């Protein structure tokens, strides 16, 4: 079945550790996005990529890094520089920029 | 990103009642999208609107793209318990490029 797969669904890490969240899509979508969700805050854009090997910062990119080496994959690394990393992270994709976004099931990161 | 004001923040209703929520922007939007999110899951697209004045239905859901292009509303008729969740409005502003802006969500609770 076509869709967006995020892994892991739950992740715990200690302070000071980097962690990478996986996002894979088999929808043949060009654009991919990472959002962060905190209770009562809605969704905030971290990074997005319109094509392979290119990506742009969103509103809250500090402390995060991404890569887009393949069309179907857009991993997000939460670095130790991110001051408040505990959150629900959502990956999305769309056929083109400014189009309808389709979301994965999310990854919940908890920093202990 | 551009700020979207979504209201109400939460609603607590009885099964069978109709529900209305809305979203406003300080600037003109070209596209309005409405999503529903179940707990611990990613948002799912409900309705997409592309033209000012457009009125679109999806089963018991009806959404409209405001004529001023600065607002949109979502109505749910004859609510049922599975309507429970968080509803988000989202849109692309005239100057927001590829960044989809989200409201903070309306949390809906339905009692049998």
Write the layout of secondary structure elements.
The complex is a heterodimer of chains A (112) and B (112).
Chain A (H helix, E strand, L loop, with lengths): L3 E4 L2 E4 L5 E7 L5 E7 L5 E9 L2 E4 L6 E3 L9 E3 L8 E8 L7 E2 L3 E5 L1
Parallel strand pairs in A: 2-11
Antiparallel strand pairs in A: 1-3, 3-8, 4-5, 4-9, 5-6, 7-8, 9-10, 9-11
Chain B lengths: L3 E4 L2 E5 L4 E7 L3 E9 L6 E6 L5 E4 L2 E5 L5 E6 L8 E9 L7 E2 L3 E6 L1
Parallel strand pairs in B: 2-11
Antiparallel strand pairs in B: 1-3, 3-8, 4-5, 4-9, 6-7, 7-8, 9-10, 9-11
Walk me through what this model shows.
The complex is a heterodimer of chains A (112) and B (112). Chain A is built from no helices and eleven strands. With 112 residues, chain A is mainly beta. In chain A, the strands form two sheets. In chain A, strands 2, 4, 5, 6, 9, 10 and 11 form a seven-stranded mixed beta sheet that branches. Chain A has a four-stranded antiparallel beta sheet with strand order 1-3-8-7, with no helix packed on it. The model of chain A has no long low-confidence stretch (mean pLDDT 93). Chain B is mainly beta and 112 residues long. Chain B contains no helices and eleven strands. Classes of the chains: A mainly beta (112), B mainly beta (112). Chains A and B meet through strand 4, strand 5 and strand 10 of A and strand 4, strand 5 and strand 9 of B.
């Amino acid at each position: 079945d076509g869709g967006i797969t995020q892994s892991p669904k739950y992740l715990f890490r200690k302070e000071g550790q980097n962690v990478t969240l996986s996002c894979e899509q088999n929808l043949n979508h060009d654009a991919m996005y990472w959002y962060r969700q905190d209770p009562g805050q809605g969704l905030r854009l971290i990074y997005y990529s319109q094509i392979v090997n290119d990506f742009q910062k969103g509103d809250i990119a500090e402390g995060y890094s991404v890569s887009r080496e393949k069309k179907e994959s857009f991993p997000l690394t939460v670095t130790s520089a991110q001051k408040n990393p505990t959150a629900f992270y959502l990956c999305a994709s769309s056929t083109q920029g400014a189009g309808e976004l389709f979301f994965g099931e999310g990854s919940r990161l908890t920093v202990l | 990103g551009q700020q979207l004001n979504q209201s109400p923040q939460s609603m607590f209703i009885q099964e069978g009642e109709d529900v209305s929520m809305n979203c406003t922007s300080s600037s003109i939007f070209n596209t309005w999208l409405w999503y529903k999110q179940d707990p611990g899951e990613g948002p799912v697209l409900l309705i997409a609107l592309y033209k000012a004045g457009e009125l679109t239905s999806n089963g018991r859901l009806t959404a409209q793209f405001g004529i001023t292009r600065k607002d949109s509303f979502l109505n749910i008729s004859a609510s049922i318990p599975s309507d429970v969740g968080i509803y988000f409005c989202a849109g692309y502003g005239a100057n927001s490029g590829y960044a989809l802006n989200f409201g903070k969500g309306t949390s809906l609770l339905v009692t049998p």
